[in-house]
Amino acid sequence: MSLLAWIALGVFIGLINSKAFKRPDTNRLVDISLGVTGAMFGGAIFSEYEVAGFTGIDFYSLIAAAFCAILALILYRACLKLPV
Predict the structure, then answer these.
(1) CB 3.0-4.6 Å disulfide test: which of 10, 67, 74, 78 passes with 39?
(2) How would you write the chain as a 3-class SS string?
(3) Do 59 and 32 touch, CB atoms closer than 8 A?
């Protein structure tokens, strides 16, 4: 269940990013892909190293997923030297 929440969160963050940067250099599919990839990575890493076990949707793994999704989008824009 957490995997679906991470994917949905990544799509949401990617869409918000593509709406926030309405420029010709913005590609919606890339933003969504990076958001989903970052969210899945962050959520999986947090869930793997979390001390207390929790089943279902974990609020803290969603925060970690959101942070990593935003970080992935910022790093992508920084590597291409696009305005953040």
Answers:
(1) 10
(2) CHHHHHHHHHHHHHHHHHHHCCCCCCCHHHHHHHHHHHHHHHHHHHHHHCCCCCCCCCHHHHHHHHHHHHHHHHHHHHHCCCCC
(3) no
pLDDT tens digits for range 21-75: 776 666 888 889 999 999 988 888 887 776 555 555 677 778 888 999 999 988 9
C-beta of residue 46 within 8 angstroms of C-beta of residue 64: yes
* Token pair listed for 42: 């962050």
